[in-house]
Structure formats: structure tokens, C-alpha cells
Amino acid sequence: MSADKHLQSWQERFEMAEAMQPLLGKLYRNQGVEVVVYGKPLLNASTIEIIKAHRLVRRHVGEKLRLRESFPFVQALSKLAVKQCKVDIGKLAVNYWRDHTDVSEIENYMAKELADAIDHADDVAPRDVVLYGFGRIGRLLARLLIERTGRSNKLRLRAIVLRGGKKGDLEKRASLLRRDSVHGPFNGSVEVDEENNAIIANGTYIQVIYANSPDEVDYTKYDISDALVVDNTGIWKDEAGLGLHLKSPGASKVLLTAPAKGAIKNIVYGVNEGDITPEDIIVSAASCTTNAITPVLKAVNDRYGIENGHVETIHSYTNDQNLIDNYHTADRRGRSAPLNMVITETGAAKAVAKALPVLAGKLTGNAIRVPTPNVSMAIISMNLNAETSKDELNEYLKDTALQSPLQNQIDYTDSTEIVSSDLVGSRYAGVIDSQATIAEGKRAILYVWYDNEFGYSCQVVGVMQTMLGLTTLSLPA
Predict the structure, then answer these.
(1) What is the CATH number of the domain that holds 398?
(2) Cα separation of 450 and 367, whole Å?
(3) Could you give the angle at the alpha carbon of 151 between the alpha carbons of 426 and 35, nearest 5°?
(4) What is the extent of the structural domain holding 250?
(5) Where in the sequence numbering do the catalytic residues fall?
């Protein structure tokens, strides 16, 4: 191909991606339809991100999916009365072009494949969400909720609750939402309403409330009712502490973004969210590490069986460590986080059993905090009940990541050059580094990357939707 043809091809793809963007936006804002390409979300995607999502199709099916081949499916989708669903135009297009050579039957094909979502009754009322705490996870959850702003959005961020309230606090909080040293600038506009103590982000009006205890707030004063309160503080972890939220008028359920104590259900979205019942009013989304390793462990156990194992977490430092040496109640965590590797405890391995009881008593775990601000790795060493090899295990995990019910939790890479910073912003619970896999006989070691902030936050949103009965139909099945 000549240089001019390369440029012409790129121009065609770029223009096609640009033409897709307004259609994708309208589908979500007006009909609640989220479009993906083999699991890669196109909501608010840039033209380059749309092109990259199409390039990744080769990993799934071994052949290209050109934008000119998928664009007619987006056009056909925009003409159908589909509502409140997730539609994978990548899968639909690939399946169609295997048996067809022209566009004449696309609309009929789409109507048939998406029949379950056409004229789907949109009778589920939007639900209010309150973020109690606005630290690393709280602000990322805000970004994820705000990116879904629209008439059809059912998960509505209504307020954040903070301690403090000193002069200038509101602008400081807004500034932290606008700019993030790890995850980059906020995709949109953030304004401050000083008079009403609110932040307005991409049209989402977020009431800022100051309180020192979960039971001090009357949410009904802000027209908030039947709300899910997401506790990001980590201060309260048992039923008695988290139950304080339910004493506040307007709050009906509580989700903890940390491992819970006692009988509270620890949920790893994609693995055991089916355990959530309408009667569950306090639920935990477990930890970032538990979310990263549990889907992978489930996949391996389903296929080979796990006799026992050990999980070593190489974890980025977190806000509970000191920047420089200072007093800390925990062992070793008082030493400077940016200057040291720090051995510490993790309950993630044992917590797996709460989401996956079949592994109870089979795993041990430890952690090493390292001088990076985000993205961690779990090294999972296992004794299996059946023999395997590196190639066989990788092929199975690749298929799991691409085709199984765990495809939204597990990603897979065969890159020989990937490093931690490449995974910043990953929406998956964990990413299998296939080049590092070790397997021989009944012994296997897996290396699993995870964005311990953003990937975990995506998992939390899944638990929020499940708690509120806002599950989405995914098509094609």
C-alpha cells in the first residue's frame, strides 16, 4: 500500500468514527442504550478510542472489523425503538458479515437480534445515589456516574457528604474533581455554586453536604429519597457503624467500598452479585485486590480445580501511608511510602472465600506496598487438581476474557512490553499478563495487573446497579 493509500485509509476511519459519535451519544442519552465493541464501551469515546476498539476485534475473531462495516449497524440501531440495554455492535457486525455481502438486510437482522429490547418497558424509576466521602474512590465513582448523565440514566448522583466545611473547601473539592494527577483531567466542565453549596459537573447538580457522622444528615431536605449511600471513608465497616447511615431520613441502602466485618455480604461483581437480595440493605463491594483475583480464581477453579494457593500483592501505596517517616499505628506503614517497599498484611486472599466459598481455607496472602501511585499486581501461585501447560492455561484464560460471563471482569494481554502505567484507567477488575504465566503439571503461577482505583470503581458501580435492581439487558446474548 502506498503512503497516500495509508493516509486515505486513516482519513476514512477517522471520519467514520466522527460520524458515529453523535449517534452513540443520542442512543445513550435518549434511549439508555450503551454501545460496545466486544465489550469495549464507546460511550463518550474519542474518535481514536473508537478506532482502537475496532482494531482490538482481531484479538477476538482473528480478522479485522472495519468501521465502514460496523457503521451501518449503529445507523440501524438508531432507528430501532430499543431501550435500556447494552448492545455489542462488534459481535453483531462480525456475525452478520460472515453470512452476508451487502447492507440490504442489516435492519431486519438487527430487529431480529434485538427483539427483546425493542419497545422494552421503561418503567424502572431513577434512583438517587449519595457518595459519603470524596477521596480517591469517591471522586472516581463520581466521574463514572457523571459520564452516564442523560434523561435515560437510572443511577443519579445527587449528593456528596464531607467532613469539614471551612472557607474555600467547596472550590478545593471541585478542583480535585477537575484534575487528577493519576487519571488526568475530568472529561467535561465542573462549576461551583457557592450560594447553594453545590458542584455542577456536565449538567449533574451535586449537593455538597457537611456532616461529622452518618446519622446527622436529613437527605429529604435536598429532595433526596430512597437513596443508596456509598460509604467511601472506610471508617465504619460493621453493621452497627454502617447502620448509622440508615438513621438519616432519605437513605435506604448502604454500600461499603472496602471489606466488611461480620455477616455483611462481600460482593465481587461478576462472581456473586446474584447473592444480593432486595432485603439486603447493607452490602460490601470487598477490596480492589479481592475484586482483581476472585474472577481469575473462579475461572481457574472451574476448569482445573484449585487445591491450595498463595496470593502476593504488589500494591501501589495508598493514602493511609506516610509520605515521609512518621508515626503510624500499623506495622511498617509509618515509613515513607514513596521511598520504600513496605511489607504489610492483606486480607484479600481470605476474603475470596466470602465471594467464592469453594476456596475457603485454600488461600494465603501477603502484600508489598511499592512506590507507585496506582496500578497493582497480584501474583497467584496455585496447586491445581488437574495438569496444564502455559499455552493451554493462557488459551483458556484468553477465551474466558473474550467470550465468558466474566469478560467484563477479566482482560488479557499478550504484550511483551506492558508495564504498570499502561494499565491506568483499565475498567477491568484484573488483566492477565500472559507472557508472565508459569504452568507445568499441576503447578501454575499467574500475574494479574489491576488498576486498584479505576478498575475497582467500575466493579463498585456494578454492585450499585445490582443493589438497586438496575441490571441491564446485554445483546446479543
Answers:
(1) 3.30.360.10
(2) 14
(3) 40
(4) 127-258
(5) 288
